[in-house]
Specification:
Structural class: alpha/beta
Shape: globular
Helix content: 25-40%
Number of helices: 14
Mean pLDDT: 92
Radius of gyration: 20 Å
Number of strands: 13
Order of helices and strands: EHEEHEHEHEHEEHEHEHEHEHEHHHH
Low-confidence stretches: 355-369
Oligomer: single chain
Largest sheet: 7 strands, parallel
Strand order of the largest sheet: 3-2-1-4-5-6-7
């Protein structure tokens, strides 16, 4: 197939990835290309050119948000609106078999009906105001087809777009793998460091459980890092910076337990899948889709924002067999399984053979069993 893949513009789709969506998008393109599809990635110009990028902005728009003027958010929003409108002006006359939208932006939804080919949008986020406004203004059927990444997020979106498919995210289980035996007796937390990710809760819970903790990831909020994270770190703890994926694999694969502390309802949680692929059990707050991913055979759930409950989960995770974690990750969250499901979805979309409820027969819960 000839596929146009529309990325978001906040960060470049390149290493070291700013977060899970950037990593996901890069792997998605690579997997489609490896399966013989002709893929063009529409992203910022500072993205990885090995992904066959057709730039729609010179650089990622997050860079503009470092400016000091009060109007920067409006400037970024205007720039993105303009960039996506120009892109869809081009796509109207393109010869793609389908367009796959990962952009988290309302313009592709508004203009999907102008395309000569089908457009599918993967919903990576909870209901955001600008996306919701677009769907209020226009019938969902005119905005293309939709795939969600978890059952809990599908239910949140269902009042706006009706029933739709669920395909769980996948990770490269040939890359994410255990790197140490025996394990180092430490906890690990990784991701962008900001209040929404709850880094400070992970530190407090690790100390309560009596284990040192390693932190890895870019600092997305300097004030939060200085005020809530640094003062909590003890001599045995380590902040390892914005590690490369190769370094992250070694760090996670050597850890005793991965701590996941969202302070909002995560639509999926790629860090869970990556940790499990490394054979590392997960102690996590029971928020959003995390409760779908972390079952008792691979980890322990804790009450949100409860240090003692999370510390107990950390201690219990140290009893879980790491090989079982990896086996389940390979079964439920591999890239191969995810891409098989998307290719099947593409075939159904192009041939018009969807079931009457417009969903794939398989759902995330069925695939997990």
């Amino acid at each position: 197939m000839k596929i146009g893949l529309v990325a978001h513009l906040k960060y470049p789709i390149s290493k070291p990835y700013a977060g899970g969506l950037e990593s996901f998008t890069a792997k998605f393109v690579e997997q489609l290309q490896a399966r013989g599809h002709d893929v063009t990635l529409f992203a910022s110009g500072d993205s990885d050119r090995g992904l066959n990028v057709s730039p729609i902005t010179p650089t990622a728009t997050k860079l503009l948000q470092r400016s000091s003027d009060d109007d920067r958010d409006n400037r970024v929003e205007h720039l993105e609106d303009l960039a996506y409108d120009r892109l869809f002006d081009r796509l109207r006359n393109s010869d793609f078999d389908l367009v796959h939208n990962h952009s988290i932006h309302p313009t592709p939804l508004r203009r999907a009906s102008e395309l000569a080919c089908p457009m599918v949008t993967t919903i990576h986020v909870p209901v955001l105001p600008r996306l919701a406004e677009q769907l209020f203004d226009k019938p969902a059927r005119e905005c293309g087809s939709f795939v969600n990444i978890s059952e809990v997020n599908r239910k949140e979106w269902e009042p706006l777009i009706g029933d739709h498919a669920v395909i769980p995210n996948g990770v490269d289980t040939s890359f994410w793998k255990q790197c140490a035996r025996p394990r180092n007796g430490r906890a690990v937390w990784f991701g962008r460091i900001l209040a929404d990710k709850g880094t400070h809760w992970a530190i407090d819970a690790a100390h309560e459980a009596g284990v040192p903790i390693d932190l890895a990831g870019p600092i997305a909020d300097d004030d939060y890092f200085r005020q809530m994270v640094l003062p909590r770190l003890r001599s045995a703890d380590r902040y390892l910076g914005h590690a490369s994926h190769e370094e992250l694999c070694r760090i996670i694969g050597a850890a005793e337990v991965c701590v996941v502390t969202p302070c909002w309802d995560e639509p999926f949680g790629l860090v869970v899948a990556e940790a499990l692929a490394c054979g590392t059990p997960v102690a996590a707050f029971a928020r959003g889709a995390i409760s779908e991913l972390v079952t008792s055979d691979v980890g322990q759930l804790a009450r949100p924002n409860d240090v003692r409950s999370l510390a107990r989960a950390i201690r219990l995770c140290r009893l879980i067999d790491s090989s079982q974690c990896r086996h389940i990750a390979q079964k439920r969250f591999s890239l191969t399984a995810m891409m098989d499901r998307y290719e099947d979805y593409y075939r159904q979309l192009l041939s018009g053979t969807f079931a009457s409820d417009n969903r794939l027969i398989e759902t995330s819960l069925e695939l997990a069993r």
